[in-house]
Write a structure and sequence with these properties.
Blueprint: E1 3-8, H1 20-29, E2 36-43, E3 55-58, E4 61-66, H2 75-94, E5 100-104, H3 112-121, E6 125-129, H4 142-158, E7 161-164, H5 167-177, E8 182-184, H6 198-206, E9 214-218, H7 227-235, E10 242-246, H8 253-262, E11 270-274, H9 279-287, E12 291-294, H10 303-311, E13 315-318, H11 321-327, E14 332-334, H12 339-344, H13 352-364, H14 367-380
Parallel strand pairs: 1-2, 1-5, 2-4, 5-6, 6-7, 7-8, 9-10, 9-12, 10-11, 12-13, 13-14
Antiparallel strand pairs: 3-4
């Protein structure tokens, strides 16, 4: 008998973004066990494969399209609730027994008790991936942060299983809420190398970037990724290398705030280059960097860090629990006071660090490994 797994909370398939969307795509792309049938909720504004209320097939997964209401920040909550309702209706129509509802993110947690009861009446189970500490993100207003913290609490109480993508997330939830039923299943990454491309080389030339002579930052342009700390620390260093920043800074108020607090425009080494959507080009940028700087501190196993561990020669990583659990002994850890020193000393760091980081990726973080762990869970979970 097939195990039906409903995945709710990503924008949907095909993946057009990183994070949860990439996870869902890799999950269905690397599926080995055909006794699992995936059903994936898709936002109407991100799907041109079918109309709202319709279904389409993608990589063997049944995708169902949900129309998003235009109600501001609350739309993400409404999306999850509408998707849960659509999935429950589908289960009844198709007489699906004992489904698994896997919800990505905590946004619907304030209303989850009602839906958890409905899922349980079908003999089903509710799994939740909390996606780091979303309520700490500065982009949210204080009332929304308060709601997200409450939502996190309710999810831990009502879910049959919390899936944490980092041991640090699980430790936090248990310390905050007591006896939480949780399992650690990490995010994954690809293990590929860039392909030769004249266009990619031209991009480096156009931005006056020299191979092997730049530090690299990649990530969402938000304060909790510590752009100010990393830029100020770099500007205080004596390195002759550049700092290349790949991020969506255009038309972002944070850019002007950062300019005011760091005066980075006075240092010609600091180069904002915008977002890079070409996967091969981004891979080449990582491979050619002198070192990657990772300042993320809100979240679990960060995809950008995994990509850097595979592709970059050195990784200088903010010393917080989430990052430490991933890099182990394969990176140079820094705190808020010593990054400048670490940058100055980066030329002396052993090349063996990249070999060690790739060993960690191959043993724990490839997509086939992660997908196998999920399939084992979906097929064998008992509570």
């Amino acid at each position: 008998m097939k195990k039906h797994v409903f995945i709710i909370g990503s924008r949907g398939l095909p993946a057009k973004y990183g994070g949860f969307e990439t996870f869902v795509e890799e999950l269905v792309k690397h599926q080995n066990n055909k006794n699992i049938k995936y059903h994936v909720a898709c936002q109407s504004e991100n799907s041109d494969m079918a109309l709202p209320g319709e279904h389409f097939e993608y990589l063997g997964a049944d995708c169902f399209v949900i129309k998003l209401p235009k109600i501001g920040s609350a739309r993400v909550i409404a999306y999850d609730i509408l998707a849960i309702n659509a999935a429950l209706k589908y289960c009844k129509k198709e007489e699906i027994k004992a489904p698994i509802f896997y919800i990505l993110g905590n946004t619907a947690g304030g209303f989850i008790g009602h839906y958890a009861n409905k899922i349980h009446k079908l003999g089903g189970k509710l799994f939740v991936n909390p996606d780091g500490l979303e309520w700490r993100r500065s982009k949210w207003s204080k009332p929304i942060q308060k709601y997200l913290k409450f939502s996190e609490k309710m999810m831990t109480r009502k879910a049959d299983l919390i899936i944490s993508d980092n041991q640090g997330i699980e430790d936090y939830l248990k310390s905050e809420y007591g006896d939480v039923t949780s399992k650690v299943l990490a995010y994954g990454t690809e293990t590929i190398v860039s392909q030769p491309s004249e266009a990619d080389d031209k991009w480096l030339d156009d931005h006056q970037i020299t191979k092997g002579h730049y530090f690299l930052m990649v990530g969402r342009f938000v304060p909790e990724n510590n752009f100010e700390l990393l830029i100020k620390s770099f500007m205080a260093s004596t390195t002759t290398s550049d700092l290349v920043i790949v991020t969506n800074y255009e038309d972002n108020p944070f850019y002007e705030s950062l300019r005011a607090s760091t005066s980075f425009e006075q240092d010609k080494r600091v180069k904002f280059v915008g977002t890079v959507y070409d996967k091969n080009l981004l891979l080449k940028i990582r491979e050619n960097a002198q070192a990657y700087l990772h300042g993320h501190e809100v979240g679990g196993t960060n995809p950008s860090l995994l990509e850097a561990m595979w592709s970059s020669r050195q990784n200088l990583v903010l010393d917080v629990t989430f990052n430490r659990n991933v890099v182990l002994d394969s990176a140079v850890l820094f705190d808020r006071d010593n990054l400048t020193e670490k940058i100055n000393l980066s030329e002396t760091v052993s090349e063996d660090l990249q070999k060690r980081s790739q060993e960690i990726i191959l043993s724990s973080y490839t997509w086939p490994i992660i997908v196998q762990q999920y399939e084992d869970l979906f097929l064998n979970y008992e509570n």
